[in-house]
C-alpha cells in the first residue's frame, strides 16, 4: 500500500526557500510596505464581487476552513491513519497541523494587523495576518497531497486527488477575500506558512522514516 520504493525526495531545500519567502512576506506586511498595499489593492480589484451567488457560495464554503472544522478533520484523519497502522504518517499529520496553527497564533499576536475596515460579510474576530483559514487549509490539504502521493498507487486517481486538495485550499483562501475579512496578503501569507510547515514536516518524515525504510528494503 505504501509507496516507499520511490517516495518524493527530501524537501529541505524547498522548505528553506519557502521559509525565506514567508519571512520576507511577513516582514513586508508588518512594516506596512507599499509593495503589500499595491498587492492588496490590485488583488481586491480583481477578486471583490457583488455577485450574490458567489458571495453565498463563499459564506458556505469558507466554513470548511474554520478552526473547529480543521481540528475535527485533522483528528478524523489522524484516527484513520492509526487504525490502518500508519503511525509515522499519523504523527506527521499531527505534527504539521499543531506546528502550523500554533505558529500562526503566535505570529498573529506579534504582527497585530487589523482586519480590513470594509464591511465584513461574515463574522470574524482577532488579528488579520496571517489568515488562519488559509494556514489551516494549506497545512491540512498539503498533508493530504503528501499522503496521496505516498499511499495511492493509481497515477490517474493520484492526480485527481492532488488537484482536488489544492483547489480546496485555494478556494478557502479566496472566500476570505470575497467576504472582506482578510486582505489578499493575509491569505498569501497563510498559504506560504502552511506550505512551509508541510515541506518541513515531510523532510522529517523522509529522513526519519522513508529513507531508513528504503535503505532497509534495499538490504533485503
From TrEMBL:
InterPro entries: PAP2/HPO (IPR000326), PAP2/HPO_sf (IPR036938)
Transmembrane segments: 12-30, 64-84, 89-107, 127-152, 159-179, 191-210
Gene3D superfamilies hit by this protein: Phosphatidic acid phosphatase type 2/haloperoxidase
One of the Pfam families matching this protein, by short name: PAP2
Domain (Phosphatidic acid phosphatase type 2/haloperoxidase) ranges: 85-202
Keywords per UniProt: Membrane, Transmembrane, Transmembrane helix
Record SUPFAM superfamilies: Acid phosphatase/Vanadium-dependent haloperoxidase (SSF48317)
PANTHER family tied to this protein: AT30094P, SPHINGOSINE-1-PHOSPHATE PHOSPHOHYDROLASE
The protein, known as: Phospholipid phosphatase
Species of provenance: Lactobacillus kalixensis DSM 16043
